[in-house]
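Input structure tokens:
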């Protein structure tokens, strides 16, 4: 899933030294991608203040990364199979490090956006390659423990990201929020050099290059129309042309996926009821989650006057609730089925979003923001683990990797679209009225997600007798 659940046990006691090294490589390789996803929003006001560009630049800083990441994360697994997991991971790390440095040194907003596009390409190579490395190195119970360790460690990125980003922005520069990536990348590259393990490739692996290009082109053109529309207007030829190009490219992408021999997005997976409805829930819930993260981080600094560090700490209760209670909710979801949790969770998040309307010009975090944030965190905790279980449980185990990748891509692209719509939702300026409108839209999206789960999810819709889907 897009949001890692709670941490698990430490690494397997019986693991060899080489296996422990592989596990650390996988953890550190993925950590930078997760860290970047959570660290950037708190730095957005400082970036806009330094480079100009207002809300549109802030949207592009987030969405440029998500365009290439969302478009390529599905095909990255095939690239890893074709060229070798260690090689692809090394390329991803070098690319992520180089682009992080370029972002940290960016002289203009346009340069930064271009570097973020390239960073998304590198980021798409990291997580699938890291997981593939674990899957090929560990077997049986040790594999489950290794994946649990990886999940728990990467969760730390979500905890550390906003706070670390706030501290670096306040006491050094927003540029250090990106340059900090170089440290774990350097350590990972050293471990890779010392590993001495033979790379793993899959015979007859193919890469859907045309599908990847169509997906990236469709997302990029559509997002350009959505982000720039508040400034240029719907009638502007550039908006009309980019919107039409985006729609045409995405239609061509799905047409190709339905006919390709080895598609990057296997549409047959959606024949499984819980997989299809669960991903539709993911679309609305994670779109709303991205919208919430953007508007809260930015408004608390630009509108409410909090420091970047305080803004980073403001949503820490959500992460704490996730870490403490996600495992327990996962157990309850397994006992009672996912439907009620996937319904109640988004509805509670919606209520938490509506509660943020209490924020006023006379801002007080403890009475106006914290109650809604806590309620939002309770709802997210109720939803995430059962949602992941319902989606992956609907698919054969041997196809769980691509099922997880599809769900991750859906969550990322939903966030991409939601952030692209910020300008339209807030009316071009994220003032108090715009913030209130955005919280209401966020809450409405969450209510829709809950309704979708209630209508579509079934507690007994798991895999039956080797189903094709997952």
């Amino acid at each position: 899933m897009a949001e890692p659940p709670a941490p698990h046990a430490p690494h397997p006691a019986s693991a060899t030294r080489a296996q422990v090294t592989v596990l650390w490589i996988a953890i550190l390789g993925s950590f930078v991608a997760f860290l970047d996803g959570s660290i950037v929003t708190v730095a957005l006001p400082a970036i806009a203040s330094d480079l100009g560009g207002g809300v549109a630049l802030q949207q592009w800083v987030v969405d440029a990364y998500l365009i290439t990441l969302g478009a390529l994360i599905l095909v990255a697994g095939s690239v890893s199979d074709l060229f070798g997991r260690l090689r692809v991971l090394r390329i991803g790390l070098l690319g992520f490090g180089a682009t992080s440095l370029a972002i940290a040194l960016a002289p203009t907003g346009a340069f930064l956006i271009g570097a973020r596009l390239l960073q998304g390409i590198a980021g798409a190579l990291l997580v699938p390659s890291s997981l593939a490395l674990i899957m090929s190195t560990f077997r049986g119970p040790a594999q489950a423990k290794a994946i649990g360790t990886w999940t728990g460690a990467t969760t730390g990125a979500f905890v550390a990201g906003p706070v670390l980003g706030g501290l670096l922005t306040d006491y050094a520069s927003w540029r250090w929020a990106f340059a900090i990536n170089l440290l774990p990348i350097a350590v990972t590259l050293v471990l890779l050099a010392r590993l001495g393990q033979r790379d793993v490739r899959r015979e007859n692996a193919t890469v859907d290059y045309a599908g990847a290009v169509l997906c990236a082109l469709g997302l990029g053109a559509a997002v350009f129309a959505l982000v720039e529309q508040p400034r240029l207007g719907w009638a502007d030829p550039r908006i009309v042309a980019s919107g039409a190009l985006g729609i045409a490219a995405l239609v061509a992408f799905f047409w190709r996926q339905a006919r390709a021999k080895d598609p990057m997005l296997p549409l047959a997976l959606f024949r499984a009821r819980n997989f299809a409805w669960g991903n539709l829930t993911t679309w609305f819930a994670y779109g709303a989650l991205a919208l919430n993260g953007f508007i809260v981080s930015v408004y608390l600094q630009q509108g409410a006057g909090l420091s970047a560090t305080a803004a980073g700490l403001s949503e820490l209760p959500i992460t704490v609730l996730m870490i403490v209670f996600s495992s327990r909710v996962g157990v309850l979801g397994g006992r009672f089925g996912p439907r009620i949790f996937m319904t109640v969770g988004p509805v509670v998040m919606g209520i938490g979003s509506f509660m943020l309307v209490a924020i006023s010009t006379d801002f007080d975090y403890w009475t106006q923001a914290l109650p809604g944030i806590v309620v939002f965190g309770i709802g997210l905790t109720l939803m995430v683990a059962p949602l992941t279980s319902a989606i992956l449980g609907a698919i054969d185990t041997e196809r769980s990797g691509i099922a997880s990748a599809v769900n991750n891509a859906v969550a990322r692209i939903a966030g991409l679209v939601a952030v692209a719509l910020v300008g339209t939702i807030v009316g071009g300026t994220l003032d108090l009225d715009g913030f209130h409108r955005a919280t209401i839209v966020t809450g409405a999206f969450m209510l829709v997600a809950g309704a979708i789960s209630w209508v579509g999810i079934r507690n007994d819709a798991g895999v039956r007798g080797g189903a094709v889907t997952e």
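Confidence is low (pLDDT under 50) at residues 1-13, 463-470. The two ends are 14 Å apart (CA to CA).
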